[in-house]
Amino acid sequence: MADSNNADGNVHDDNVDDAREPQVEGDATNATAPEDLIEAEGPDVEVPTDAPAAADGGPTGGSPADDLSPEDEALLADAASGIAEDRLSPSDRDLVAEMRADMLRAQAELVNFRKRVERDREANREVAIAEVVRALLPALDDLTRAEAHGDLPEGPMQVIGQKIRAGFDRFKLVQIGEKGETFDPNIHEAIVQLPTPGATGQTVADVVEPGYKLGERVLRAAKVAVAVPA
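The chain above was modelled as a monomer; its predicted structure follows.
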């Protein structure tokens, strides 16, 4: 370590001065001061990705498939399918055929399921309507008896009765059981048999209580008296 004396008698250390000098790394000539940077001015310019081709015949950015007609695309699809199948091994072809059959079977099951759901929904709707109409049949019987005996005078009650019948007609409610028709156990309920001379078969001699049918569904069989041969 070298020591030197100043004029004032102080001891000067040369190594300390060397340590105090700043260390500069790199080339000082390549450094750029912040004030030397110039910020670009003006609006940002967006370059469209689908810009047309340059005048020198550069690419336009579109694909050749965009100019194909649907018929050409179908031909290409068939050709690609044929090439792909030619490259398949026999075992792979069997696997593809099996998967295709499974797909068709699943599709058929789905169609059948939808039809079954629609059929069940319609059947449930008919059952619900039938139960409501069946519960109102006693009121309809009273209305019929009142009209037959003249107990339903002209006025508001008659209008109400007409509206009730119109509501039943809307659901295609049909009255069954007529005097003189052949007895049918499917729509008739025999409550009494009347031996009648000259009768050749079982016929309805009298209707005690009419029956009703909603569509093809018998809600209530007609209660009748049946004339039978004596």
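The chain is about 45% helix and 20% strand.
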